[in-house]
Amino acid sequence: MKKFLVFVIIIAISVGVGLGWTSIQDFVTELTHPMKYSQYVEKYSEEYSVPQEIIYAVIKCESSYEADVISSSGAVGLMQIMPSTFEDLCRRTGEEYNENLLYSPEVNIKYGTFYLSYLHSRYGVWETVFAAYNAGYGRVDSWLKDESVSKDGRLIEIPYEETREYVKRVCDARDVYSELISDKEVKIERVATE
């Protein structure tokens, strides 16, 4: 009986440590992959048919959620939109162009998501969209014509290391956000059924 009791205690401690470790991992993941500005992400995800995890991943990789950041190349805000791209997107939506609006989290997320949607309608493959978001669609169009780096309309080898690494980072972040969103939905469902 004493051995059985020791065995049960060891199992209970192991389960407790395992659950504690999982909670710690979840906590760290949520710290390193925040889901700020969710009201805008959800709104424009639905409006432009871009999955939320992709929007969050691009924000994470582009600005780490710093709304007022400007890159060395002049890209602005959460989704690091170039003013010239923003001007073009404003023309497409029929809205007035004002470069200062790029500092607004809502405007930046709206137009960044709109741009992702536009690129997805152009390429149909998220990895190619991410490459175009980073390197520009003109450059990606030329890569897709080059059989040494593309096959069947898909990039198989991205010539620029920066863009190659960017695509990998966004894909990795997308996978983490996909899991976080799924976990969040499960928790909401669980609460709703209690």
Estimated helix fraction: over 70%
Strand order of the largest sheet: 1-2
Radius of gyration: 21 Å
| Amino- and carboxy-terminal Cα gap | 38 Å
Which spans have pLDDT < 50 for at least 5 consecutive residues? none
Sketch the major β-sheet.
2 strands, antiparallel
Mean pLDDT: 87
| Total number of strands | 2
Please identify, by name, the CATH architecture of the largest domain. Answer: Orthogonal Bundle
The class by helix and strand makeup works out as mainly alpha
Task: Give an overview in words.
This protein has helices spanning 2-32, 38-48, 52-63, 83-93, 105-123, 126-135, 137-145, 161-193; strands at residues 150-151, 154-155. The protein is mainly alpha-helical and 194 residues long. It has a two-stranded antiparallel sheet with strand order 1-2. Helix 5 crosses helix 6 (126-135) and helix 6 crosses helix 8 (161-193). The chain is globular, with a radius of gyration of 21 Å. It starts with a helix and ends with a helix.
What is the secondary structure topology, with strand pairs?
Elements: H1 2-32, H2 38-48, H3 52-63, H4 83-93, H5 105-123, H6 126-135, H7 137-145, E1 150-151, E2 154-155, H8 161-193
Antiparallel strand pairs: 1-2
